[in-house]
Structures are given as structure tokens and as C-alpha cells.
Amino acid sequence: MSAIRGTIQDGKVVFDAPPDWPNGTPVEVEPVRTEEAIGISEEEQGDDPESIARWLAWFDSLEPLILTTEDEERIRQAREEQRAFELSQWEQHGKKLEKLFE
Fold first, then answer.
1. In a domain, 76, yes or no
2. Is position 89 within any domain?
3. What is the pLDDT of residues 1-10, one digit of tens each?
């Protein structure tokens, strides 16, 4: 038996095409990853010398991240804005936490 695709609708799986499996066939359902994978998957990883050499070659091919002065200033400003926002929410967040322990 091969895998088939479907979509969740109202809490039920609706298949793109009806499976040709007999009634009572046990199935396993998990979401399909839709985001693009970065790097290599677990199946592609290995601890044999060839796999390690491949990974090292990939790692060595990465370009260094070089930030300009403008980049660093934008990051500093974004961090400061985030800090100010978090401080403005501090009391409200603390009250929510207190309610959890009442």
C-alpha cells in the first residue's frame, strides 16, 4: 500500500482520491511539512566518514555573515524597541501569572 494525500476538514481527513484499502486497515496520519527544509534531513545525516566529510565540506562552503554599521544600528534599535515593549507589558504579564497560582 502506498501513501495517499488528503486534507483535514471539520476534524476529519478528506482524501484527494478514495483509497483502495480494505475497511479496517489501520492508518497513521501526520501533517505534511510545507516549509522548505534548510540543510539536510535526519535521513541524510550519518556518522560514517563519508557523511562527516560531506557535512564538513558543506559547512566550509558557507560565507561569513558580515554586518554593516547600518545593519548593526538597525539590530540595536530593534532590540531596544523589543525591550521597551516587553517592559510595557511586564505588569500585565505578571498579573496573568499570579492568577495561575491562585
1. yes
2. yes
3. 678 888 889 9
Q: Is pTM, for the whole model, over 0.85?
A: no
Among residues 11, 13, 10, the alpha carbon closest in space to that of 32 is found at: 13
- Asked if residues 12 and 27 have their Cβ atoms less than 8 Å apart, the reply is no
Residue 82, domain extent: 69-100
Nearest to 29 by CA among 5, 45, 50: 5
Cross-strand pairs, 8: 13
Task: Tally the domains of the chain.
Answer: 1
CA distances (Å), origin 98, targets 10, 86, 89, 90, 95: 36, 17, 14, 12, 5
Q: What is the pLDDT of residues 55-95, one digit of tens each?
A: 899 899 999 999 999 999 999 999 999 999 999 999 999 99
Domain-embedded: residue 88: yes
Helices and strands of the chain, counted as H and E runs: 3, 2
